Amino acid sequence: MNTKMMLALAGAAIATFGLARVAADAQAKESNPSHETAPAGPSVARGRYLARIAGCNDCHTPAYAMRGGDVPEATWLTGDALGWQGPWGTTYPANLRLSFTKWTEDEWLDIAKNSQFRPPMPWFALRDMDEDDLRSLYRFVRELGPAGEPAPAYVPPGVTAPGPVVAFPGPPPQP
Ligand code: HEC
User: Fold this and answer.
1) Is the CB–ligand 1 distance for residue 137 below 6 Å?
2) Secondary structure in 3-state letters for the chain
3) What is the value of pTM for the model shown?
4) Which of 121, 119, 123, 134 is nearest to 168 (CA)?
5) Domain extents for the chain?
6) pLDDT tens digit string along 131-173?
7) 120 CB within 6 A, ligand 1
8) For a pocket test of ligand 1, which of 59, 107, 110 has the largest count of ligand atoms closer than 8 A to its C-beta?
9) Which pLDDT does position 2 carry in this prediction?
């Protein structure tokens, strides 16, 4: 192979790689709408954005984290039968599509600001959210509407949980 041919081949390879990159970026943008930013003020769109980036879907939507978020919105936040087990017993991410139908928007603000749920629910993230974020989450979940079944009931420590669990060790001692 002469130098000219080698250069031509290298050029073709770079061009192909470049095109592949452009295609991959376009696909990533399409399948990853988190490029979207949160609109200002309370809104359904902002709630959707928060459900995606604040981790709510990771636990409250079946298989969301395992499938890289590729789960239809129709099943978002319907709770999960995968148990989270540790010194607190076994907890199940609640079906928020049902929970939110029990509360008015103002009751939700009070619950979010003043409740401590069992691990691994990050209740402190709800406590620290601003009012627009909390109202947006509420409006988004109400817009999705009720769906699915209630999550399995809490199982106390030492009692066998039905179904699969993720087992946590106890928390490390305070530094
Ligand atoms: C690491 C997993 C995890 C993440 C992330 C998570 N949750 Fe939870 N959530 C749980 C579990 C488990 C429970 C059940 C706790 C219990 O039994 O006390 C729960 C309970 C709740 C409840 C109580 C529901 C009821 O009917 O009592 C609300 C409300 C809630 N989560 C909202 C959210 C929101 C909003 C987000 C996102 C900001 C979120 N959670 C993120 C695991 C999680």
Assistant:
1) yes
2) CCHHHHHHHHHHHHHHHHHHHHHHHHHHHHHCHHHCCCCCCCCHHHHHHHHHHCCHHHHHCCCCCCCCCCCCHHHCCCCCCCEEEECCEEECCCCHHHHCCCCCHHHHHHHHHHCCCCCCCCHHHHHHCCHHHHHHHHHHHHHHCCCCCCCCCCECCCCCCCCCEEECCCCCCCC
3) 0.82
4) 119
5) 34-167
6) 999 999 999 999 999 999 999 999 999 999 999 999 998 888 8
7) yes
8) 59
9) 53
Assigned token pair, 96: 């928020």
User: Which residue owns the Cα nearest ligand 1 atom 43?
Assistant: 121
Q: Name the region of 99 (left: φ>0; alpha: ψ -120 to 50; beta: rest).
A: alpha
Residue for token digits 């109202």? 135
Two tokens at 126? 């709800």
List the Cα angle 45/122/94 in 5-degree steps: 75
Distance of alpha carbon 127 from alpha carbon 99, whole angstroms = 17
